[in-house]
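Appendix B: a complete holo record

For completeness, this appendix reproduces one full record from the ligand-bound portion of the collection. The bound molecule is zinc ion. The inputs are the chain sequence and the ligand SMILES; the output is the full three-dimensional arrangement of the complex, encoded as structure tokens. No fields have been trimmed.
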Amino acid sequence: MARALVLEETRRLSLREIDLPQVPGPGEVRIAIDTVGICGSDVHYYTHGKIGPFVVEAPMVLGHEASGVVVECGPGVTGLSVGDRVCMEPGIPDGSSRASKLGVYNVDPAVRFWATPPIHGCLTPHVVHPAAFTYRLPDNVSFAEGAMVEPLAIGLQAATRARIKPGDVALVTGAGPIGILTALAALAGGCARVYISDLVDAKLGVAAQYGNIIPINVTREDAAASIRAETGGWGADVVFECAGAAASVETALEAVAPAGCVVWVGMPVDPVPVDLVLAQSKEIRMETVFRYANMYDRAIALMGSGKIDLKPLISDSFGFEDSITAFDRAVEARPTDVKIQITMGRT
Ligand SMILES: [Zn+2]
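The structure of the chain with zinc ion bound, as generated:
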């Protein structure tokens, strides 16, 4: 048994004992959790009890963005030792699946992903996890930053799918956490500058504290028109749609340059209309993103080299015993909050 933050049912959390594995098997390590970031998906399960086909039907431990310290290695583990500071990739595929063999393990139908029903998450003092999905952190990357590797991996997946070329100009629609991390990934991937659009000035302000991220408030400006004005009428080489809203889907197709690329990152709650003829008339390429595969090493390398600094995005931190308060703060969705974290060691 272990203490954990348990989502009992929609809108009801408790901190209580629950049965969770504590002994590492072959190829697994046991990790003392240090920091867990609260993700939009954790909040959505809390407030709505489901995301698409994934429905919370039994009590589930929340949390999937985590860092910690290896405290025990199971049989056959090489490359990790007790005391290593690490972060963990929350999706564990079936290694013998067709998806895994193709290198696209993120779309393995059998993937077991922390805090996606019915799989328990990591808001508990210790987790047992495959060593193959546990990554050592450089000394200059803090636990708080280590817990940001997971959402950054989504941005890197998007940037990789876009096949950015040096000097590309990008537009990111939506300045939420994933929008900002995607903008940073796009810059790291070679974009000269990235425009980011949103309805809320405070969110744009957080994004624009980074160099070469240029805010566009769509309540005052037409984002597609602004992009054309800034690119000699051509449009953005790459558009990352991160808002998941019908209006921004339309903006993405209007703002993208001929022969450019739109990457669909945001997930609309309901189906949205897509102007296919507009896409065809510019012969654009479209890409989709579902989580990430093989991005953790890259995210850690970019943070370790200082090319991506996520410290300004960590808005507040709560102790484990205040986890429910932390979730209620995340539900508030203050416009200047990007990432709320829970720190296990702190009381
Ligand atoms: Zn997440």
